[in-house]
Amino acid sequence: MRRLTVGQCAPLVFAGVMALMPLVLRGYPITLLSYVGMAATAALGLVLLTGVGGLTSFGQAAFVGVGAYATAWLTTAEGLSPWLGLLAALAATGALAWLLGMATLRLGGHLLPLSTIAWGLALFFLFGNLDALGRHNGLSDIPPAYLGSFPLRSANAGFYLIWVSLGLAMLACANLLDSRQGRAIRSLRGGSAMAESLGIPTFRLRLAVFVLAGMLAGLSGWQVAHVQRYVSPTAFDVGPGIEYLFMAMLGGAGHIFGAVVGAGLVTIARDELQDILPKLVANSGQLEAVVFGALFIVVLQRARGGLVPVVLRRLPSRVLSPPPDAPPLPRRTQPAAGTMLLAAQGLVKRFGGLAAVNDVSFDLRAGEILGLIGPNGAGKSTTFNLLTGAAAPTAGRIRFMGADITAEPARRIAGRGLARTFQHVRLRPTMSLLENTMLGAHLRGRAGMLRAVLRMDRAEERQLRAEAMRQLRRVGLGDMPHELAGNLPLGRQRVLEVARALAADPVLIVLDEPAAGLRRPEKLALAELLRALRAEGLTILLVEHDMEFVMGLVDRIVVMDFGVKLAEGAPADVRADARVQEAYLGGVA
Ligand code: ADP
Ligand code: MG
């Protein structure tokens, strides 16, 4: 029999324990656990949005309110079934999240969290001022959900309604995160440039996560409406919104279970404090808020990632088998050696008065390694950015694989077969080597979110995993696919970036100063790897500062200085060129 890992056992044990709760507990504890479940459903949305996607929202409670009021109004005023109310709650929160996301997700820095406070407050005041929603009194006499003709009215029925729907939501989220789209979502934290360079549409993905988080709040609102059977605005203020965020962070914002742990701790602790504080202090009104504030600070100090990761670190690590072999993914037809692959013509890039790149032209032919060298500030990185779509040229044209790619966005250029690495390594340190490499193969998969949630993407996942494994072996990292990328020394991180680039099945791979910061044996190994790749027919453009590294490796060199092309030719000729010696080598060569 196959041995189950901790990760596979925990959900089963958890589901079993929760299913037995109503048999063991009676009365108030069940009600309290129902509150935990409702809060956990909303906090689960923030686990996706904040913990995984890196977007902070203080407005989650407002979305819970939208879901709660949508179903409350439809089932009381219009007499619809609560199950239709569920669809309405999900549709309303999803649509609203989409609209707000379109309007605010492009805001950078602190503007997005600030805007969530703004619309959170706006919605809160809206609930309290609409006559149809009962103004400050809210709506009451909401019908319970029915199973057939059986009303889910009792405390136990409410408990199961909440925890079954939460359990399904957790399963859906776990499936999503363990998929091609989920990896892409997990790559969103820490900037878009890397994800875009792999062909991942970051804005669309952020919007999707925002909508999902909103819909989970909608589900929570539906639970509230039909278990509690009344809704009133106070529960949907920004205050509770901050509390949901606290729950997600306390539990461990990157983990599905963090939502339950955080919601459980906060809900139960508040309940206890409301009992204890009045006995200790006379006028204890809002004192629990102060206690929570202090707790928040302690968590931020002691366990920034939340409690679940702290526990996971203490558990024995998972039993891991190497990924099974799967039929290979389809490959691109590589252009015949010597054909024109990339042509830069009269490239200009100005920053204000400074021409960082000034009328630079060069060609790249299939199967060669071209070195682009020059002293610091020569304009190499800027040229690199123009070629890879990270920046648009002021003038000039770039053709790649017979198409004009001038000013095309990075992710489109990636789709045409150009893969890149970064001068300052950009990996996802908390993802494994295998997952980082699988990110590189993003465009070679097709599975969307729905297929992932329903787990219909397994065959493709196996292919992607096998492909990533092949690339890890190819670069010499095949012995530890499950190690976290952040644990590698810099030299091997650079090599991992090469594996990620190779997983895209590129025709051209562009490396920005790959030898920077490497020790000599690491440089030699990297040069060996690049030679091997060329032998396999890959074309390589190397932007490099390190002369020694370039000379023995490349077929041709383009030298830049002060934004212009100074020389071009075979390494030996370039080395002999007097202007190059003066500008770059300082007469050493
Ligand atoms: P290299 O990679 O060859 O060291 P860069 O392409 O990074 O050179 O820089 C070329 C010149 O352009 C430098 O003088 C640099 O200061 C300037 N530069 C690069 N990027 C920007 C920018 N975003 N804004 C203004 N100046 C820039
Ligand atoms: Mg540079």
Topology:
Layout: H1 6-24, H2 28-52, H3 60-76, H4 82-104, H5 111-129, E1 146-147, E2 150-151, H6 155-177, H7 180-186, H8 193-197, H9 202-228, H10 238-251, H11 256-280, H12 287-302, H13 307-314, E3 340-351, E4 354-365, E5 369-373, H14 380-388, E6 395-400, E7 403-404, H15 410-415, E8 418-420, H16 433-440, H17 449-453, H18 458-475, H19 490-502, E9 508-512, H20 520-535, E10 539-544, H21 547-551, E11 556-561, E12 564-569, H22 571-576, H23 578-585
Parallel strand pairs: 5-10, 5-11, 8-9, 9-10
Antiparallel strand pairs: 1-2, 3-4, 3-6, 6-7, 11-12
Helix pairs in contact: 1-6, 2-6, 2-9, 2-10, 2-11, 3-4, 3-5, 3-9, 4-9, 6-9, 10-11, 16-18, 16-19, 18-19
The structure holds adenosine-5'-diphosphate and magnesium ion.
Adenosine-5'-diphosphate binds at residues 351, 354, 356, 374, 376-382.
Brief rundown of the structure:
The protein contains 23 helices and twelve strands. It has helices spanning 6-24, 28-52, 60-76, 82-104, 111-129, 155-177, 180-186, 193-197, 202-228, 238-251, 256-280, 287-302, 307-314, 380-388, 410-415, 433-440, 449-453, 458-475, 490-502, 520-535, 547-551, 571-576, 578-585; strands spanning 146-147, 150-151, 340-351, 354-365, 369-373, 395-400, 403-404, 418-420, 508-512, 539-544, 556-561, 564-569. The structure holds adenosine-5'-diphosphate and magnesium ion.
